[in-house]
Structures are given as structure tokens and as C-alpha cells.
């Protein structure tokens, strides 16, 4: 491959583009890899398309290596299969829907579980047809409320989605482990520093679930690690250790006037000032905050839900949504219509709504909380004595320093990452929905179980750019770089010709070469562009050409050395390993 | 590549599938290349995906070889650019449109002229940036009223679309010739017998236009050739030679009672029986048939139009639509509301609607036609004397035996083909719409002109299947076959192992191998499946394995010969050239 910059569709930008809030987005725009074409939709320019294709190839190779078979479904699909699974309703506004000229309902598929399941139903009949791993690399659509970060969260994006179909739970685990290892190989080849974290499976249904997160400041996903063990989890999946059951007998519940204390801070200040319950060491963690939300059940109406969390924590709406999925929640605001819910003074005792409590609100724990009357709070409100939650819920904000749920001795640290892969043991949700049965080895019908394995291919471009850049520009890992070597003709005339000759020689040897043969462009601009574009090896054909030398620059280390032009092919090839 | 049929997602069908009306569709379904997933939407199964990828690779290689640069646009696009070009309105029901969660209008792009033009506007500024050839291989959408033929006419399909941007008409011609040659190389490599025919550019606008048609009985496009010269044209593009102007003076117009003659046949019979105008040799070609249509102008309402054609011809609605594009026409049916248009007895003399005539209705020609009164016709109705058309139109059906418009001495023959490519000199329709100007060499602004070049990639799969099959199944040309060789383990035990060993050896040597290692499947079924799947070379590991021999079968010639197993790699490699 030989790309000449004199004819390449490329326009690098010196200025920071407006509306690009994350480094990868800014750099991919500035270096001419992508352009915005629509809200959440991007055009791949020639250099970007090369990187995208490299990543796709790596993903495909590793999927085939573990027995994956590639198929390709339409993106535009009729409604019916998504009604069977109830996802047409569950997704709601999050998917693009449309009608064809006959008025039939269609959607732009956000994922294809239904289609994979139907295909397997049509194409298999016996246990001999299993296990199966099917995948596709396909354009996906989601009507994101807030597209952000360029390729990080778009409305049209490229995904590799895969599903395993096995007959037993043991085979599912085996397929899962095989795909998990393939994913590790993929992300290693992509040069992505990543952490595998426990995750929730979200609206997909299913059980065991792990995310591959590329570590990045700009990541949307907050995940935790442990100071003492190898526990790592998406915050949605963090479980809160319940305190041991208390046997101490708390004094009876007392109600106090606490005027003008609608917030936890004002309540704690007043409680200490008045030594409520005989204490003046109240902290926010001793109070029980009760947050009212409206839960939206897809296709089944709304419900008022009250969530109790220790007063030193907020409710984390992402954790809450994950806990409620496929339902979603928004903050309740119709207090006028519910006089029993006294805003700022709600307590769980005698509450007339479903009440779910944080695991820390264990049986026997005593709390300072609302008395369900304006301007009044209660102390010694004991879980299991004065109120009994309808269940527990993981919805409280996870904080650095929280105890590790895995080892119990370490504490949690917080990091941010970009979700680049998600694998989980989906189970039989879809084979149940479509009643997929095949003949078992014992002659009886058996229902296959599924694993689900996704990689954000276009998002990976952004994740790599996010991890591999410096103040001068991008710096691609070799396996995904748009070229192996970037040759710069620093001067004119003979230097351009020599650069093109060398480029032709390298390309003939199988290398992918980008050569800057632009006329009327200064050497300084060419160097700046080369650093922005971010290919690891630059060969400068410059002032020592007459002596038969070119300069080899290493974009990573900054090293420069003069090398005989005739040695360049060997040196470059050797450096590629 | 090594594909084992024991694990491959494949189920061949013995029975003809219902609803598959053309051979390619039937065979691609039966041999397990595709499955229907939606109206006009197909799922690529593993074997089909391999063929599709082979074709894509060939197209890409030939595009890059002529300097094409690959980009990729979103398929889901906002309405605005398509309003600028007026195509949002022109396409009407033919495209899929939708609204996002904010109520903004989007479309699933049928083609991307607007986006290519906007990209060039953003990425170029000077004559130095030209010429440019940009292409993409992308999923396209059209809300076809009548999807048919499986992959031949779908609603979601894979296209390679390319545009050249040049500054002068000469450079456009040069780019056009270069792409035309590239297309010839593509279709030759794909093994497609094809004819390049003159065509109309349709709703795209533009001038010079040629289609690449793969010869096939089931093709939707009728095209003509000449018995004497190399003229070839889509019927829409055929021009009708006008007869020389007549100087003979026809007698005056006479009106006759012609009761119960609403059809041409009944009129001719009566005219001869009564010797109207003193003749009894009337034929349908002497009559002038006047067909009323409603023309739908996109965004600008409807118009009644009358079309005059010799009575021995029908109006061809495809030719009519091509002549009226971007407007479309349907047969007029509101005669009750237009008493001036007397159904069955319409004549062009004094007509109160726009009237366009076939070129054969030349000045001085005399006709037997309606008298605009029920049950009456007129003879000696002379064009230019008794009526003057508002213009000519090419809407009459083209018939075998018509004179060739190119050489004048030959006559036309009719064939059918599948449109696999379309190239045309688009001109400045889109650069005008978006006001694209760049700095010219003389310091003045210059507006680029465009060429448009499309290949139906998924349709090519069907076209190849249509041309390459026999009664036993498909028979792929080597360059697009899903594998280079198909190894059949005819028996059990040692034969399966030997087949897998050979397959591994061939795959290690770079060949793409499909091996039928299915247990519990008879040799006969395996042979039948191999012929259905259609890979040119089959190696049978069978009864002579003990002597060290395998049988090599040539799917094309039917030749079979025994070859030492150790010679197979060399023989296969040599046969691939």
C-alpha cells in the first residue's frame, strides 16, 4: 500500500475543533481521520477507514480462531421478532423506529439477539449442531439522548456482536471462557490497556457478566478496584457488604420537632446542636435518606418507589437503572399529589409506597430519619422493628474507600474507563421467547442457552486514540496504525523523487507506506502533520540525501538517527518484528 | 482458511424454496448462502459472507488501482442536505424516512451524492486538490414497492458508490474513461458476462451515462443490440429515428362515424371494412394512439399529459418514467372529470392538455386517430397542419426489428440483463446545489464537476449465481468462490482423518479449504451438497485411500481422475494459476 499525501483526501487542522470535548475526538478530527456527518454520526476519511479496517480484521481473526462463524444480518428489521422478546417496548425511545411505505413497523437494530436466535432455530435441529459461535461486524443504531465524545457514544456505530449457543450450562461457561480469552487477545493486539470488571447485564437479561474497560479519564464508566485483592467491577455491579446483624436493643423511637431541616446537612447540624437522642456526634451516615422515584416499567405503566440510603450517600441513577432494568427511573416530583410523602421529612415507618433499602440498612440498625410530618424527624428508627423494607437495592453511590465486597479487608479505589467489550452468560431468555428446542443426545428436546459477546469496533478507534497520544498528536500501536512508515520529503526536487522511490520499494516489499510528497509545503509543516497523524516510524528524506542518508525518527521515543537509504527497508522491516 | 462442514452453519435444502422465483435466489437459498430476514432484506450465512467479501475485495482493489480513496459515510442522515438537492421530495415514498427522539427528520440514504459533495467542499480549497475519486462500500436502503429476486432487488443492499471530482469537462471524461476501464476489470474478474449499454441517468441528473448489464434471462432491464453495429442501449435510452419530413400533401382531414371502436384493433378492422379515406390497407401503425397519463412532479403537484404513439405500439411506462424523471407518471383514470378527453376517441387536433408525440409522429405525417367525439375518428390528421405537438417524447415500446438509431442499417435485437454497474457524467448538479467553488489555477473560483460510478455488490452475488449454475447447483468462478477446494471424506474413520490432514496441509499452504467431515452423512449426500455449493474443485477421499490415491473432480467439466494424495497440493495450486 502506498498513499501519497499530494493526492490524499486529508486536511489537518491546527486549531482545536469546537464541540470536541475529549482528546481522542479532537485529535481524530484534527489529524483527518473522521468528520462529523450527523448528530452522533461520523464519516470515516481515508486514514480513519484504514484504522477501522485494521481493527475489524484483528477482531475477525480472533473470532475465527475460536471457531466463530461470520454472518451478517440486515440492520433494518421488522418489528415482529422484537415484539416476541418485548424489546420493541423495552427500548422505547432508545431505538430508531420507522414505517415502510405500507405502514409496517420497522426498527434499526441496536442489537440482534432475536435474529441470531431465529437463525439458529431455522438452521439447527439436533445436539450434533452444537456448540455454535456466530458473529457479525455490523453497523448498529441507537437513538442516544446525548451522543458524546465523537466515536465514544454515537447513534450509528460499528459493533462486532457474537453469540454462543450451547446445550448445557457447563458448555456455556466453556464457550464464555474461550471468548473471554479471545477478547483479551483482541484488546492486547489493539494496544488497549484494559481491565475486566464484573458488570450488570442490563436490559439484555442474563447472569454472569463482565466488561472490558479501556482505562481513560474521559471514560463514561466508573469502575472500582480493591487495594488488597484483584476485585474489579463496574460501579453498577458493586455489591455492598451488609453490616452484621445487630443484637443491641435500641431505645424506642422518638419524634422530634426539627424545623427547617429539609436537607441532611441541616438535619445533622440541628441534631447535634440539640443532642437529639442524647447524642451530639451525629454524622450524615447516621441518618436515613429516603428518595422518591418514579419507576417506568416498559409497557406496564409507572410506579412510585422510595429508596432508603445512608444520608452520606446520593442515589446513583446509573446504579439505580441497572438495578431496575429493564425498567428505568426518574426523580419523583408530584409531591402535591401525594400528601403522604412529605418532602424532606420522609421516613420508612408506615410508608405507603414500595420501599427498598440499601444493604447497609440491615435488620437492627437504628437511624435518624423523617417522621412523615413537616418539620419533624425521628431517632431510633430501627430496621426490622419500626419498619421492614420490601427488599434491598444497590442504588447508593459507591465511594472510594468503601470496603471491598470480595476480600473484605481492602478498600475500593475509583477509576474511569471506556467500555470496549461486554461478555455475559445470557442464558435462555431468547431461546425461551422463541421456543427454540433441538433434539438432545437422549432423544428428548433440549433448549440451547446463549452467551453474548460484543466489541465496540468504532469506539475502539477512539479508545486507542485516547490511550495513545501526546501533546503533538496521535501515536498508533503498530497493529492498528494506518501505515507502517511515514516518509517525509523534507525538501523539493530530488528529495521528493527519492522519497517516492523509497516508498515504492517499501510498498513492493509488503509494507504500508504513507509518503508526504506534497509540493509547496514546508518541511516544518510536514513534520508537524506527521506527528499529528501518529505513525510510529518516520523516514525523513532531507539534506543528507546527497550522501545517501535519510533520518529515521521514532515517534514514541523521539530518537533520531541517520541511516543509509539502502538500509531503510531492512531497518523498518526489522522494527516491525 | 479451513472450514469444516461438521461445524459449519449450513443446511442445504433438497426442495425448491417457495417464493423464490429466479434461479439465483433458489440456489443461494438451497445451498445455504443466504436466508430471508425481512421483506427485501437478507441474512448472509457463512458461505455467502465469504463470497460477498471476495467481491468487495475485488471491487476495492480495482478502485484503489485507479486512485480511488475509500471513505465511509453514515447511512442514517439528517434531512437538510437532501432538501438542498431537492431529493428528499423527489424520492418521496422510495426512501425510508424517520424521526429521531427530538422529532428531527432523517433518512436512510439511498445514495450519498450530497454527502460526497459536502465532504469535498469541506476538505478542498484549491485546484491542487483535484482530481479526486472517492468511494465507499456501504449498506444502502430503498423502500422498493416490489422487492424481487432475492438479492436482485432488495430494500437493504450493499453498494460500492464512487464519485469523481474534476475541474473541467475534459478531466471528467478522463476520469470517466478510467473508471469505465476499472469496471470492465472488476466484472471480468467476477466472471460476469456483461454488456455496456447507453443508459439514462434517471433521477440523478447528468449527461453521458452507461450501464453494465450482466446478461440474464431474469434481468429486469431490457436492452437492445444492433444486428449490424456495436450499438447497445438500455431500452430507456433508445432513441427513435424520425422519418424524413414528408412533402407530399395529404388530403384534408375527414371525420367518420366509427361506432364501437375504442381499441386500435377494432378501429383498423372497421377502417378497412369501410375503406376509410379510400384505403383498405390500414394497419395499426397507421393509427395514432393517444394515451392520457397523470404526471406527478415531486413537490409541485400533478399534470395531465397526453402522449401520442403509433397504434402498433404500447406506451412503455419505464421509458416514460425515464423520459419524465424526476417526475413519474401513472395512467389517467378520471375521464368523468375531463369530458374533453373522450376515452377511446382522443385525437391531438385541438386537444386541451399538454401533448407530446413519439418521434415517428414527424411533421407532415398523416394519421387515423380519434375525433374527440364518442364513436368518431378522423383520417388525414396531419402533424404540423392539423395539430402541433408540444414536443417529442421517447415513451413508445421498443420492439425487436426496430431500426438501429446508430448505424441506420441494422435492426434492434432484444435481450435482458441485470444492472450490475452504472457510470455517468453527473456534471455540476450537486456542486451547484451546494455552491462548491475552489480556487482555480488562474486565481478565479472554479466549480468542480462530478462523475458517478456505482456497483451493486450484493446484487453481483446474485448475478454471478444467475450466470454460473447448472441443474446440479451453483458453480462459482474461482475469484469469488467461497473456497478454492472442497474436500469430501466419502467414508468414515480413516477417510475423515485423511481428509482433515489434507485440508490442514492445503490451508497451511494458503488455500481456502472447505472439508466435508460430517459424520453420519452418506457419500452420496456429500457429493450432492458439494455440487450444490458449487466450488470448482472437489477432492474425494474415498476407497482408494489405502493405495494413497484420492479422486479429483472438476465441477465444470465433470472430469474425474485419481491422483496420489501427495500430489494434490501441487495439482490444486497449479490449477488455480
UniProtKB/TrEMBL annotation, chains A, B:
Q: Cite the Aminoacyl-transfer RNA synthetases class-II family profile domain residue spans from the record.
A: 35-477
- Subcellular location, record wording: Cytoplasm
Where does this protein chiefly localize?
cytoplasm
* Alphabetically ordered keywords of this record: Aminoacyl-tRNA synthetase, ATP-binding, Cytoplasm, Ligase, Nucleotide-binding, Protein biosynthesis
- For whether the record's keyword set contains Cytoplasm, the answer is yes
Q: Which reaction does it catalyse?
A: tRNA(Pro) + L-proline + ATP = L-prolyl-tRNA(Pro) + AMP + diphosphate
Q: Which NCBIfam families match?
A: PRK09194.1 (NF006625), proS_fam_II (TIGR00409)
Entry function: Catalyzes the attachment of proline to tRNA(Pro) in a two-step reaction: proline is first activated by ATP to form Pro-AMP and then transferred to the acceptor end of tRNA(Pro). As ProRS can inadvertently accommodate and process non-cognate amino acids such as alanine and cysteine, to avoid such errors it has two additional distinct editing activities against alanine. One activity is designated as 'pretransfer' editing and involves the tRNA(Pro)-independent hydrolysis of activated Ala-AMP.
Q: Subunit arrangement?
A: Homodimer.
Q: Which family does it belong to?
A: Belongs to the class-II aminoacyl-tRNA synthetase family. ProS type 1 subfamily.
The name this protein carries in UniProt is: Proline--tRNA ligase
High-level lineage: Bacteria, Bacillati, Actinomycetota, Actinomycetes, Micromonosporales
Amino acid at each position: 500500500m502506498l498513499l501519497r499525501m499530494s493526492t490524499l483526501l486529508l486536511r489537518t487542522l491546527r486549531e482545536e475543533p469546537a464541540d470536541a470535548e475529549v482528546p481522542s475526538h479532537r485529535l481524530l478530527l484534527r489529524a483527518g481521520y473522521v468528520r462529523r456527518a450527523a448528530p452522533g454520526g461520523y464519516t470515516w476519511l481515508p486514514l480513519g477507514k484504514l484504522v477501522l479496517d485494521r481493527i475489524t480484521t484483528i477482531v475477525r481473526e480472533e473470532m475465527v480462531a475460536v471457531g466463530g462463524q461470520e454472518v451478517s444480518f440486515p440492520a433494518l428489521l421488522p418489528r415482529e421478532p422484537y415484539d416476541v422478546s418485548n424489546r420493541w417496548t423495552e427500548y422505547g425511545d432508545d431505538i430508531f423506529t420507522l414505517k415502510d411505505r405500507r405502514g409496517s413497523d420497522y426498527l434499526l437494530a441496536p442489537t440482534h439477539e432475536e435474529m441470531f436466535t431465529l437463525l439458529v432455530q431455522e438452521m439447527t435441529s439436533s445436539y450434533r449442531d452444537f456448540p455454535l459461535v456466530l458473529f457479525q461486524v455490523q453497523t448498529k443504531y441507537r437513538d442516544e439522548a446525548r451522543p458524546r465524545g465523537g466515536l465514544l457514544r454515537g447513534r450509528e456505530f460499528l459493533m462486532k456482536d457474537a453469540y454462543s449457543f450451547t446445550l448445557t450450562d457447563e458448555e456455556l461457561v466453556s464457550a464464555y471462557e474461550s471468548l473471554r480469552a479471545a477478547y483479551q487477545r483482541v484488546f492486547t493486539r489493539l494496544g488497549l490497556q484494559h481491565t475486566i470488571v464484573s458488570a450488570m447485564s442490563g436490559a439484555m437479561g442474563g447472569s454472569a457478566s463482565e466488561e472490558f474497560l479501556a482505562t481513560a479519564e474521559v471514560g463514561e464508566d466508573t469502575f472500582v478496584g480493591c487495594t488488597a485483592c484483584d476485585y474489579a467491577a463496574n460501579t453498577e455491579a458493586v455489591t455492598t457488604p451488609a453490616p452484621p446483624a445487630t443484637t443491641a436493643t435500641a431505645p424506642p423511637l422518638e419524634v422530634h420537632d426539627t424545623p427547617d431541616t429539609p436537607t441532611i446537612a441541616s438535619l445533622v447540624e440541628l441534631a447535634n446542636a440539640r443532642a437529639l437522642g442524647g447524642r451530639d456526634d451525629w454524622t450524615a451516615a447516621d441518618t436515613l435518606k429516603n428518595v422518591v422515584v418514579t419507576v417506568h416499567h416498559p409497557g406496564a405503566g409507572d410506579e412510585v418507589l422510595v429508596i432508603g440510603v445512608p444520608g452520606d450517600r446520593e442515589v446513583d441513577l446509573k446504579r439505580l437503572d441497572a438495578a431496575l432494568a429493564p425498567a428505568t427511573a426518574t426523580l419523583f416530583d408530584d409531591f402535591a399529589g401525594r400528601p403522604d410523602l412529605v418532602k424532606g421529612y420522609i421516613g420508612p415507618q408506615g410508608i405507603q409506597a414500595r420501599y427498598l433499602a440499601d444493604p447497609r440498612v440491615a435488620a437492627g440498625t437504628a437511624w435518624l430519619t423523617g417522621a412523615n410530618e413537616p418539620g419533624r424527624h425521628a431517632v431510633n428508627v430501627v430496621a426490622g422493628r419500626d419498619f421492614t423494607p420490601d427488599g434491598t437495592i444497590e442504588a447508593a453511590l459507591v465511594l472510594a474507600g468503601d470496603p471491598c465486597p470480595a476480600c473484605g479487608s481492602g478498600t475500593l479505589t475509583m477509576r474511569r474507563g471506556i467500555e470496549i467489550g461486554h461478555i455475559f452468560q445470557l442464558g435462555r431468555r431468547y431461546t425461551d421467547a422463541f421456543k427454540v428446542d433441538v433434539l438432545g443426545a437422549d432423544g428428548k428436546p433440549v433448549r440451547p442457552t446463549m452467551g453474548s459477546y460484543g466489541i465496540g469496533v468504532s469506539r475502539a478507534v477512539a479508545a486507542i486514540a485516547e490511550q495513545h497520544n501526546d501533546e503533538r498528536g496521535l501515536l498508533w500501536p503498530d497493529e492498528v496504525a494506518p501505515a507502517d512508515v511515514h516518509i517525509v520529503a523534507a525538501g523539493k526536487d530530488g528529495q521528493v523523487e527519492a522519497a517516492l522511490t523509497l516508498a515504492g520499494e517499501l510498498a513492493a516489499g509488503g509494507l504500508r507506506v504513507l509518503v508526504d510528497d506534497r509540493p509547496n509545503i514546508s518541511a516544518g509543516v510536514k513534520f508537524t502533520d506527521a506527528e499529528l497523524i501518529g505513525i510510529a516510524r518516520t523516514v525523513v528524506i532531507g539534506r543528507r540525501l546527497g550522501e545517501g542518508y535519510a533520518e529515521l525518527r521514532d515517534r514514541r521515543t523521539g530518537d533520531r538517527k541517520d541511516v543509509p537509504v539502502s538500509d531503510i527497508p531492512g531497518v523498518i522491516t526489522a522494527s516491525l518484528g
